[in-house]
Every structure is written in C-alpha cells, then in structure tokens.
Specification:
Length: 356
C-alpha cells in the first residue's frame, strides 16, 4: 500500500497521500483520514442547542428613506462538543484555542442582511468539559421595516434577525444566552446617535417556517429607538408656520391696495413650494401621509385659501359692495388663525392614535 501511495504521489505532484495514509493508519482507519472534528457532534437526532448573544458596539446610517441601517457588533455563541473535552495539563490551562477551520462551528446568517455579513476577529475557546465559546466581530447592512406615519415624532424598532443557513436548519437550535443579557449596547452607541435615542433593547428565540414541514430557529434582536425631533421643529415646522403667518398679513392691508396684497400672497405661495422642494430629499418617500406631510398640506391649503380670500374681497369692491368686502376682511383676521389651529389639533389627534 505504501508503494501504491508513493506511485500516486509521483503522478500527482503536491499530493500527500502517503502522509494522509500514515495518519489514518495510526488512527486505526482503513482510508485516507478527514478531520472528524469538522463534522457536527451527534446528539441522537436532536438539535444542538447553541446559545447566542449580541453586543452592539456601533449603530449608524439609520436611513428611513432607504429602509436600512448598519450595525457593528460582537456575536457570542456557546455550545457543547464532548469530543473536544480534555484534562488540563497544568493549572493555567483553563481553555484551549482553536482556529475555525480546525473544529466544527455553526454558521450565523443575518436573515435581513442586504449582503452577507462580514466576520472579523473570530475566536474559539474550548473548556475542559467540552464547552465551546465562539466570538466574532460582525459588520452588516440590514434592511428594516420603518413605520413612519408619525414622522418626525416616530419611534422605530430596529431588528437583527440571525438564524442558521438552510443546510443547518435541522441541526442547531438557537437559544437565549445564559448568565447574561442576550443583547447589550455599549455606552458610546447611546451618545453617538445624533438623531436617535435608544429607549429599549430585547431579544427572543423563536421558530420560523423553513420549508413546508420544517422549521428553523431564529434569534430576533431588537433595538428600540426614538427620533430626536428638535431639528425638524426649528428647520421645518417653524419656517412653515412663519410663512403661513406671513400670508395672513394681507388681512391688514387696505382692500384698495390690491397689488400689494397679490405680491404678498404669490410670493408666500412660491416660498412654501420652493421650501418643500428643497427639503423633499430629506423626507421619507412612503405611499401614505406622514405627520409632517399632513402639516405641509395644511400649510398649502391655508396659504392658497388666503389668495382666494383676497380675490373674493376684490370682487366685492369692484361690485361696489365695499362694505361687504371690509366685513369679510375683518372676519378673515379671526377665522383663518382659528381654523389653522383647529386643523393642526385635529392632525395631532389623528396621528396620536395607537394605530399610527
């Protein structure tokens, strides 16, 4: 047999058939040896329980327009492989370190990943009883469903879904990590988010359908964030409010000065339109009205109806009914602000309902 291996090695340069056979012979095997530790540990047909936890170290690019966000985290997993148990040679040998290509490890996929996640600094520690602790630094861009009806006063749930690949769906079972929280967020993440405030974190293990009659385990990590809306108050709501108030100045211009009234009304309308176009790329493009869209629409309507009002007053003056025109103008000074406030209170009441 050694002669045959030597002849094959001569015909196949780079092959180490003789060495492989010698290793197999020493192990009592009758064929070239493969690393048996790269195969999953058997558990009599039961799934291998794998505890999984996530430590988020960076959370960035939360983009509600693209419905995505980026996360950098340490993923920690733990399972038991009796084949790796050992007797320490000394008191200092509390664990042994392996490379990922030396022993079997489960694979971790982010189900909502836009692209396959990148793993760095992978470490495997094996303890005397066969407990394996796996660490990796992961970076991923994830898709997420954003509910933006209350934008910019909204609260979002960022989800990180991790489950084994299809090939391991019936092999491993993800469970909550023992001895600590399944998800944690470093303090710098809390302070580095300029637009968002983290208000809660959580995780739970669940079973989801894989095929028609099969299920696979999944860990759902959630990070609840609330938008800091101060920026929108000062840069959008306040300027729009001032534009609407500016359009009402025509109510205090004498009805005989039509040209001055038209100038104010037209310029205000154009200003609102140009302002909306300027900030449109910063607003979410969704098929429903958000809170800020409803406020924009209210501002459009009241600026436009101001132009309608001065037209009505002008025609009343031309029909030699100047007294009626002045009565309409005095009425407009009160009713327009009151209706504007009532409209916005109604918008707030609608969007404050639990369904929004």
């Amino acid at each position: 047999m050694y002669v045959i291996a030597a002849v094959l090695a001569a015909w196949l340069p780079g092959a180490n058939l003789l060495g492989d056979y010698a290793y197999a012979e020493d192990a009592g095997m009758t064929m070239p040896a493969a690393n048996a530790l790269l195969t999953p540990p058997t558990r009599d047909g039961e799934r291998i329980p794998v505890q999984i936890a996530l430590q988020v170290i960076n959370l960035s690019d939360i983009n509600e327009v693209a419905q995505r966000f980026r996360v950098v985290a340490y993923l920690r997993a733990e399972w038991k492989d009796p084949r790796l148990s050992f007797t320490p040679k000394a008191a200092w040998e509390t664990f042994r370190v392996y490379r990922p290509d030396e022993v079997w490890t489960p694979h971790f996929d982010f189900a909502n990943g836009v692209t396959p996640h990148a793993a760095f600094d992978v470490t495997l520690r094996v303890f005397p009883d066969g407990t394996v602790k796996y660490y990796e630094r992961s970076s991923a861009e994830l898709s997420n469903s954003f509910h933006l009806r209350c934008f910019p006063f909204d609260r979002q749930r960022l989800e990180i879904l991790s489950h084994p690949p299809v090939s391991e769906a019936g092999l491993v079972n993800f469970v909550d990590a023992a001895g600590g929280p399944p998800i944690s967020v470093e303090q710098r993440v809390y302070s580095s988010l300029a637009e968002w405030a983290i208000v809660g974190i959580g995780a739970n293990a669940e079973q989801i359908p894989a095929f028609s009659t099969e299920t696979t385990s999944q860990m759902r990590f959630t990070i609840e964030v609330q938008r800091r809306y101060t920026f929108y108050l000062w840069t959008i709501f306040l300027p729009l409010l001032l534009m609407v108030i500016l359009s009402w100045t025509v109510f205090w211009i004498d009805i005989s000065q039509l040209l001055s009234q038209v100038r104010v009304s037209v310029k205000t309308t154009l200003a609102v339109i140009m302002f909306a176009l300027a900030i449109s790329r910063h607003l979410p493009k969704v098929p429903y009205l958000t809170f800020i869209d409803a406020f924009f629409l209210a501002c459009y309507v009241f600026v436009f109806t101001t132009a309608i009002e001065l037209t009505v007053v002008h025609f009343a003056g031309r029909s030699k009914n100047e007294k009626r025109g002045r009565s309409i103008r005095r009425f407009s000074r009160i009713i327009w602000p009151v209706l504007f406030v009532m409209t916005n209170l109604l918008i707030v009441a609608i969007y404050a309902q639990p369904g929004h």
